[in-house]
Amino acid sequence: MNVNVFKLVLLALLLSLLQILTACSHVQTSQDIVIPQKRFEMPLLQPKDWGVSFTQTQVLNIKAHNQEHQVQAVLEVNNQAVQLVLLKFGQRLMSLHFDGYTTRIEKETYAPEFLQPQQVFQDIQILYADAEKLRQVLPVNCHLLSTPNMRELTCNSEVIYQIYYNLSDATNQSLKRTRLINQQNQYAITVDAIGD
To answer: Where is the signal peptide (predicted)?
Structure first.
């Protein structure tokens, strides 16, 4: 078994165990959330053009239409591929793999409908890919403002994405927190990175 795949699976299992042990007693059903109707779309960059390389275990808090869902993620980005595994209570919801040529998607039948692979890839890309490379694939009517602590994507003067990096958490100063807001589709994702 590939060592990186083994690490991803091990991280996913450890995160799942942690989530199960700390899970809240109230669980919302996946049918509660509304699927976005409008969609801004951008082409996927080649993994080598992302300008970053990392493996990260994350907890994602998704808020949409006054509802909240929490999923766990293991994300690996390198020059060869972008890979993501999403879990909830230890159950795999979706696996995504993009090597620049082929996209592999494995979505379980019990996965919530709001987890749309193209939207998930796009959110990851706008969060982590190199800003200059993103600008090269944006539609002509779109503009990306990027600083070390935020990004804002507008199209036709309408704000599509707002991203805030390096947010602090009063209860855990070592936690790396990022917040993505999709204004067009009215959802927000808080990404808590666990470790490096």
So the answer is: 1-25
